Give the backbone structure.
Amino acid sequence: MAVLSAPSSGVAVSAVLPRMLTIHLNKMPLLAGLSEEALENVARVLLVRTANRKHAVVHKGGAGEHLLFLLSGRMQAVDITADGREIGLSFLSPGDFFGELSVIDGLPRSASVVACEACTYALLPRTEALNLIYKHPVVAERVFKRLAAGIRQSSNFRNILGISNAFQRVYALLDHLSLVGPGGLVVIERLPTQQEISIMANTSRETVSRAFQALIQRGVIEKDAKRLIVRQPAALRDELKVSRLSAV
C-alpha cells in the first residue's frame, strides 16, 4: 500500500438541500429510523468529501474531530507497527460509520483509514456527533454494538497475526472473512486484493498467491469475479490444522 496522503478538499453539504439529503441518511444503519427533524439537523452540519485510491481520510494519532460515514466506495482501517510496517484491519463498505472511538473519548485516532478505491464520505463534527449519541438511545445502542464488534474483530486479528506459519495465516484470514450466503454458499464478497491480504496477514503477496493456488488446485476455493467461493469450508479448516502441525 502506498504512503498515506492527505484527503482531498471537502464540499459542504450546505450546497445540498438538507431535506433531500435526509432520504439518503435514513438508509444508513446508524441513523435509520430517526425523525425527519433529527436527520435534517445532521444534514445541515455534514461535510461531504471525496478521496482517491490510497488516500488517507483518517491518520493514526490525529485529532478525533469528526464522526465519519462512508457514502460510496470502499475503505480499510490500517495500523502502523513500531518498525513502520502496515497491518491491514477491517474493511468499510457504503453505509458504515467510523471514527467513533476518538469522538467518544477525545483521544487521538487509534488507526488510519485509507481509500481502497475512489470514495465519497461525510464528516459530522464531534459536538454534533456526541449530541446525536446522547439524545437518541437507538444511536447509542448501535455505537456500543459497533465498539463491541470492533473489540472482537481486533482480538481475532491478533490471533491470526500470532500464527507463525504464513500459509496458515492466509487460510485463517480467509476463514474469518467467509460468510454463508443464499443457499448456504460460503463466499467472500468483494474479495480483497492479494496485496491487501498480504498486509492483513503480515506476509508477502507472492506467499498469498501460492497459498491461493494450493487451495484452488485442491478444489477448496474458486474465484468468481470479485468474490471468492469456498467450495469446501471443512477442507479449509482442515488445511489450518495441517499447517498448524507442520509449523510445530
Summary: The two ends are 32 Å apart (CA to CA). DSSP finds nine helices and 13 strands in the chain. The chain has two domains: 10-160, 162-247. Residues 222 and 241 are 21 Å apart (CA to CA).
